[in-house]
Amino acid sequence: xxxxxxxxxxxxxxxxxxxxxxxxxxxxxxxxxxxxxxxxxxxxxxxxxxxxxxxxxxxxxxxxxxxxxxxxxxxxxxxxxxxxxxxxxxxxxxxxxxxxxxxxxxxxxxxxxxxxxxxxxxxxxxxxxxxxxxxxxxxxxxxxxxxxxxxxxxxxxxxxxxxxxxxxxxxxxxxxxxxxxxxxxxxxxxxxxxxxxxxxxxxxxxxxxxxxxxxxxxxxxxxxxxxxxxxxxxxxxxxxxxxxxxxxxxxxxxxxxxxxxxxxxxxxxxxxxxxxxxxxxxxxxxxxxxxxxxxxxxxxxxxxxxxxxxxxxxxxxxxxxxxxxxxxxxxxxxxxxxxxxxxxxxxxxxxxxxxxxxxxxxxxxxxxxxxxxxxxxxxxxxxxxxxxxxxxxxxxxxxxxxxxxxxxxxxxxxxxxxxxxxxxxxxxxxxxxxxxxxxxxxxxxxxxxxxxxxxxxxxxxxxxxxxxxxxxxxxxxxxxxxxxxxxxxxxxxxxxxxxxxxxxxxxxxxxx
Length: 512
What we know:
Blueprint: E1 17-19, E2 22-24, E3 34-37, H1 56-62, E4 68-71, E5 74-76, E6 80-81, E7 92-96, E8 102-105, E9 114-129, E10 131-134, E11 137-138, E12 144-160, E13 163-165, E14 168-169, E15 184-190, E16 197-203, E17 206-208, E18 218-222, E19 224-230, E20 233-237, E21 242-245, E22 260-265, E23 268-272, E24 292-297, E25 300-305, E26 308-310, E27 314-319, E28 326-333, E29 336-338, E30 345-347, E31 356-358, E32 361-363, E33 366-368, E34 380-382, E35 386-387, E36 390-392, E37 395-397, E38 403-407, E39 416-418, E40 421-423, E41 432-435, E42 438-441, H2 443-450, E43 457-458, E44 463-465, E45 470-473
Parallel strand pairs: 3-4, 4-7, 5-8, 6-9, 7-9, 8-10, 9-12, 10-13, 11-14, 12-15, 12-16, 13-17, 15-18, 16-19, 17-20, 18-21, 19-22, 20-23, 21-24, 22-25, 23-26, 24-27, 25-28, 26-29, 27-30, 28-31, 28-32, 29-33, 30-34, 31-35, 32-36, 33-37, 34-38, 36-39, 37-40, 38-41, 40-43
Antiparallel strand pairs: 1-2, 41-42, 44-45
Subcellular location: Secreted
GO molecular function: carbon-oxygen lyase activity, acting on polysaccharides
Domain Right handed beta helix: 185-366
């Protein structure tokens, strides 16, 4: 069973500058009014620092374009539903004050349908920054608590530097499809058409200790166009870490029902596992190995780069769970992917009844000893219906099973695999590859039998220190300047934000 989703309901960021150092709004906010909320306040007050308001909702009802609401330290057992929009250059900002810890706590609060304890519906130019958001939970089936929920349509929404944790649905899954036990940490659902949710930034957040059932930690789903998911830490959750989704009928018009034109960069995702998650339909305790660190399921036109994905079930997956629908034009590059229980990078549908992965690019990634639970999926796994994908410039070091690539599907076509560096504990003669239903043992046998990897190497990549998970290259590494310098796909930066090409050619792997 693949990691399911529950609850059916132009790479141009015109006014946004995205750099390796962060995200910058195009214009400074015009001087609006600054308000304050404190646990000791009173909504009859003026909302000043000396006479603050008491409730978040009162502040939301008052704040207009250009205004900033600072929330003083303390615990607020309240919901926050944004009432107004900002305008270009005049956003509405809700933020913690200075270094104080402002906690929005959902303990005991009800959940109605799919609902965020911070809820943004049909809003533009809104910023949520610096909150701890926690303990929004339910044991009731078919309702979905969300830490921060953005939905409808809207634009220029920034969710930054928040700590979202202990958002949980602990209901018993129901029905043959095991739905009803769902939650999200941060969710963006574009539920209208043609109006989208666009120009969204999710940056610098920590999202952890979630009980999600068949849903995801951080998700962009439906009619979401132009987004950046940057420098977040997502960990220790019981389903998918970051998910970019299409074709789940979140948008009322299928032509708009794909998250698209996005960047997923600089995130660290770890300890994401569906083991012991009853929504995967196995008797507990189970070992289902179905949760991805980073997943694109039906999305398109998105770059996934400079991320660390490790100790998850699957490192990164580019797939489609929807028959007849394709995940397409996804570039996965310059990522460090290591010690995941199943495959490091997986492409295609999990069964013949799923959709396809077409015209994607997997380049300059470093994959180290994934398939750690000996699932037989290797470092890269070609599932059903993977067509016209490019796999180049990747370092792949096998786990103890010596399996590097698994492709046991004869219908896959047009995939280009070359300029990679392979290594395995058993050496070149014992390393194995699966290709179109045939298993090849030995590097020479594999190349001869498949016509893949004519320019590839089988050699120790000479990492700096595998004991400390430092997969940068030593100065004598054979991966240096050994890749294909295809500027159309390799990008301009490596895992550390350094220039992608520094010598006579590009390195193989994530590190330049």
